[in-house]
Amino acid sequence: MLRAATAAICMGRRIRASLMLVTPGCTHRPVDPARATAGNWPRSAAQFRAWHPGACAIVSASAFPYVIAVIPSKIGKYEIVRELGRGATSAVFEAVDPFTGRRVAIKWVLPEALRDRDHGKRYRKLFITEASLAGKLSHPHIATIYDAVAEDDGSYIVMEYVDGGTLERYARVDNLLPIPQVLEIVFKCCKALDYAAKHGVIHRDIKPANILLTKDNQIKITDFGAALTDSAQTTQVSGIGSPAYMSPQQVKEVTLNHQTDIYSLGVVLFQLLTGRLPFQANNNYSLIYHVINTEPPAPSRYRPDVPAELDAIVARAMHKTTAARYPTWEEFAFDLANVFGNLASRAEVIPDSEKFNTLRQLEFFGPFSDVELWEVLRITHWHRFQKDTVLIREGEVGTSFFVLAHGEVKVTKQGRLLNVLRAGACFGEMAHLTKRQFVRNASVAALSQITVIEIKSERLQQASENCRHQFNGAFLAMLVDRLALANTRLSQLLAERNLVTS
Ligand SMILES: Nc1ncnc2c1ncn2[C@@H]1O[C@H](COP(=O)(O)OP(=O)(O)O)[C@@H](O)[C@H]1O
Ligand SMILES: [Mg+2]
Q1: How far is the CA of 14 from the centre of ligand 1 (A)?
Q2: What does the angle CA 469 – CA 474 – CA 480 come to, to the nearest 5 degrees?
Q3: 149: CA distance to ligand 1 center in Å?
Q4: What is the C-alpha separation between 435 and 457, in angstroms, rounded?
Q5: Which residue has the higher pLDDT, 394 or 326?
Q6: Mean pLDDT of the chain
Q7: Which of 15, 229, 394, 451 has the most C-beta neighbours closer than 10 Å?
Q8: Using one digit for the tens of pLDDT, what is the confidence trace for 406-422?
């Protein structure tokens, strides 16, 4: 929309209309010299102010005498920091909630878009669809929508601020990510979209520009404006999406299910591997023809180190018929994790996809939801240790506890064997459960090569209530088992003594 405003500045009189609509209740802070283009713009800040009373213009020294761009200093109660990006119908700003100090992203739809004679109805529906998801989807890999406001002088959506730009950056041939990292990202997208699908939401506009990155390499899916939701009160808009990523079913406008997103994510996977789109076309008609009729090439044609199994995954995700495409997100994710496992078996770092799948299989984490497991993943440290490594020493002060993911460990006290623990067992938890400083009363050492998950007590204390609740449940179940075992042993011991003494 700001592009529209900027263009309007070039056109002289029309700008007044668009800026006047933007102006109520807010001043304007023009920035971003990079957007300067020559044209019939106001020639000075004074001229700009004369044209737009109440607006404030900054004229870039380098681009003088042209006014550069205009952004509001406030939207509702939120103080605008900078523009982050823009899509077809909106501008997205970084902003601060002055009451909580929380940094947010605000997607702002200008009133002109909503009132547009040709497309206004469609834009209103996009806004309502996205706004209707406020508070509904809560997943670590989906940008959370906090609030939505519809007002005459501007409608906007307040959401989680994501600080690392979009995946578009890595969809270019000169800036490709290593294959394991691509698999990791797409795996997380599968899990997030599976969660959305299970909540009745099909995204319909999956593409690199709608997948955000955090600074620590996590992903957040955003822009659910085009989504199909099972709770939608209004009829769904058709004919939206980005043709290069649209499934054959979407371009043919037949009934869609979650497999349309599987197709689009297949295109994203292709693009992240090769830096190009599977179908090259000069216009949308020819593109749509290819989407419906042409087999996509194998990614290894453009990147020879793509393994054959990965070519097969892309082909299955992008299959034209839903019958031959991945039927579920789980299967897509499972295949990605397998290729990943093969590629990463030599690497020291344990990838998130492997960690997630490991956690899912451990009995200790059985009752945890996927969302809670991703949180566990963030608060844990994973280690691979050789046989005989000592993890816990008697007499030392402990601040963390462990869950064994692979292998076996022995628990000893003063050199005497107390127990052998296998995958899924938890140990060292007394350090967490007793609130005071805890001195370990037994030692634990690896009996084979092991993978162990370390959870620092202080990290767990800062985790969400749900996550802590699940841990408490797991500890309780474990302590009950141990108590039962201790009782059995005690009664056996007493029985033996009675036999001996009687
Ligand atoms: N939560 C966010 N945090 C940071 N940047 C964002 C966020 N949401 C969107 N953006 C940026 O704004 C751009 C447009 O946002 P998007 O929601 O995709 O709008 P549109 O519906 O107009 O495509 C994105 O490509 C991204 O660069
Ligand atoms: Mg978008």
Answers
A1: 27
A2: 125
A3: 17
A4: 10
A5: 326
A6: 81
A7: 15
A8: 999 999 999 899 889 99
Is 205 noted as a catalytic residue in this protein? yes
Taking the CA atoms of the chain, what radius of gyration do you get in angstroms?
A: 28
pLDDT digits (tens, 9 = 90+) for 168-186: 999 998 899 999 999 999 9
SS3 494: helix
Q: How much is the pLDDT for 70? A: 56
DSSP 203: -
Q: Which ligand sits nearest to residue 166's alpha carbon?
A: 1
Kindly give the residue spans of alpha helices, DSSP state H, lying in 93-178.
Answer: 111-115, 120-131
26 lines ligand 1 (CB under 6 A): no
Q: Pick from 156, 106, 166: which is nearest to 126 by CA?
A: 156
User: Whose alpha carbon is nearest atom 9 of ligand 1?
Assistant: 92
d(CA 460, CA 464): 8
Q: What pLDDT score was predicted for residue 68? A: 37
Lowest mean pLDDT among 19-23, 101-105, 395-399: 19-23
Is the CB of residue 109 less than 8 Å from the CB of residue 123? yes
Helices (H) and strands (E) in the chain, counts: 16, 20
Q: How many residues does the chain have?
A: 502
Please work out whether the CB of residue 161 comes within 6 Å of at least one atom of ligand 1.
Answer: yes
